C-alpha cells in the first residue's frame, strides 16, 4: 500500500491540469497555460479562451479570504467603469468571479483577469505623470467603496504586524533588532501625529512599475490590487517614490525628480493636503518595514535565507537613504504637490 502523500506548504499547480479545468469550465478547446512566476501568489498566462487573453492568479493557501478577493474585484470594477485602465476579472460561466481549487496544501482561491498588453513604465517624468494621473483616478473611483471584509492598510498592518514578524528572525542580532524597532517607533509617532488629518482612500497598495503597463496609445493600465485596501492616499503615493528610490545610488537624483513628476500629476487631478504631504516621508519608511515583514512572513515558502541578516541590513540602509534624502528632495516635491 503506497504511503500517504507528504504534506505541502505550497504547491505549483500543473499548467496542463489547469488547461483541462479551464476547457471544461468554459466549454472550449484546452487553452495554452504557461506558468509565469511565483510571487505572493502564482501567476499563469492563458491563451485560447473565448474571452481572449487572460491572466490566471492562483492565490497561496490562506493568503486571502473570499471577502478579500471580492473587495479587490469591486475596486477594479469601479476603476474600470470610471475609465481607469485596470485589469478586470473574467467571470466563470456560472457567474462566479472567484473560484476555489483544491491543492495539496488546502483550498486556494483563483481568479481570471483580462490580460493587458503593453510595455513596462520607465523611470521618466512622462511615465511618472501617467502613473500619477492613474493613481488620482483610481482614488476618485474608489470613493465610498465599503471596507467591510477587507483588511485595512492602517498603522498596525503597515508597522506593528511586520515588526512583530521580523523580530523572531533577529534573535541573534540584537543591534539590528533595536535599529528596526527604533525606525518603527519614530515612524509610528510621526504618522500618529498626522493620522486624523490624512486623506483616506481605497489604496492600490503596491503602486510600482511591475504592476502597470503602458499600452500602444500611451494609456497606463494598473493591475494586481492584491495588497490594496482601505487606507491613506499618502501611503499609496509614498510606495511609488520608495520603489524608485529603493535600489538607487545615494547621489542619484532620478528617483526624486521622477517622484516629483508623479506627485505633480496626481495633484493636478486630485488635491493633497499639507498633512498628506508631511506623511509621505514616514509612509515611505512604513513601506520599507512592511516589505521586511512580508519576507519574514513568507520564509516558510520562499526560504529563510531570503530573510537573513543581509536582507534586513539592506532594508535599514534603504530607510537611512530615504530619510536622509527625503528631508531635502521630497520637501520640494511636497511643496509643489500641496501648493497651487
UniProtKB/TrEMBL annotation:
InterPro entries noted in UniProt: Aminoglycoside_PTrfase, Kinase-like_dom_sf, Pseudomonas-type_ThrB
Similarity-based family: Belongs to the pseudomonas-type ThrB family.
Name of the protein in question: Phosphotransferase
Domain Aminoglycoside phosphotransferase: 40-250
Pfam families: APH (PF01636)
Amino acid at each position: 500500500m503506497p504511503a500517504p502523500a507528504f504534506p505541502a506548504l505550497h504547491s505549483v499547480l500543473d499548467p496542463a491540469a489547469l488547461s483541462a479545468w479551464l476547457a471544461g469550465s468554459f466549454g472550449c478547446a484546452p487553452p495554452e497555460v504557461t506558468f509565469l512566476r511565483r510571487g505572493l501568489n502564482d501567476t499563469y498566462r492563458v491563451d485560447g479562451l473565448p474571452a481572449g487573453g487572460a491572466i490566471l492568479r492562483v492565490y497561496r493557501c490562506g493568503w486571502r479570504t473570499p471577502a478579500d478577493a471580492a473587495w479587490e474585484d469591486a475596486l477594479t470594477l469601479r476603476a474600470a467603469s470610471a475609465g481607469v485602465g485596470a485589469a478586470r476579472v473574467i467571470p466563470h460561466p456560472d457567474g462566479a468571479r472567484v473560484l476555489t481549487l483544491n491543492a495539496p496544501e488546502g483550498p486556494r482561491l483563483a481568479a481570471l483577469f483580462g490580460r493587458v498588453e503593453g510595455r513596462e513604465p520607465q523611470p521618466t517624468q512622462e511615465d511618472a505623470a501617467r502613473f500619477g494621473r492613474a493613481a488620482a483616478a483610481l482614488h476618485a473611483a474608489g470613493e465610498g467603496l465599503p471596507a467591510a471584509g477587507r483588511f485595512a492598510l492602517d498603522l498596525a498592518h503597515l508597522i506593528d504586524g511586520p515588526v512583530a514578524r521580523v523580530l523572531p528572525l533577529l534573535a541573534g542580532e540584537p543591534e539590528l533588532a533595536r535599529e528596526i524597532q527604533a525606525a518603527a517607533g519614530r515612524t509610528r509617532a510621526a504618522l500618529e501625529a498626522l493620522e486624523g488629518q490624512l486623506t483616506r482612500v481605497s489604496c492600490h497598495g503596491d503602486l510600482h512599475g511591475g504592476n502597470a503597463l503602458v499600452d500602444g496609445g500611451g494609456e497606463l493600465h494598473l493591475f494586481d490590487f492584491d495588497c490594496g485596501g482601505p487606507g491613506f492616499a499618502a501611503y499609496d503615493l509614498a510606495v511609488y517614490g520608495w520603489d524608485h528610490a529603493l535600489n538607487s545610488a545615494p547621489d542619484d537624483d532620478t528617483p526624486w525628480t521622477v517622484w516629483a513628476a508623479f506627485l505633480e500629476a496626481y495633484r493636478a487631478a486630485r488635491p493633497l493636503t499639507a498633512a498628506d504631504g508631511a506623511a509621505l516621508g514616514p509612509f515611505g519608511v512604513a513601506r520599507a518595514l512592511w516589505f521586511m515583514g512580508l519576507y519574514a512572513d513568507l520564509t516558510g515558502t520562499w526560504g529563510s535565507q531570503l530573510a537573513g541578516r543581509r536582507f534586513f541590513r539592506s532594508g535599514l540602509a534603504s530607510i537611512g537613504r530615504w530619510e536622509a534624502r527625503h528631508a531635502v528632495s521630497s520637501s520640494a516635491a511636497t511643496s509643489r504637490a500641496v501648493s497651487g
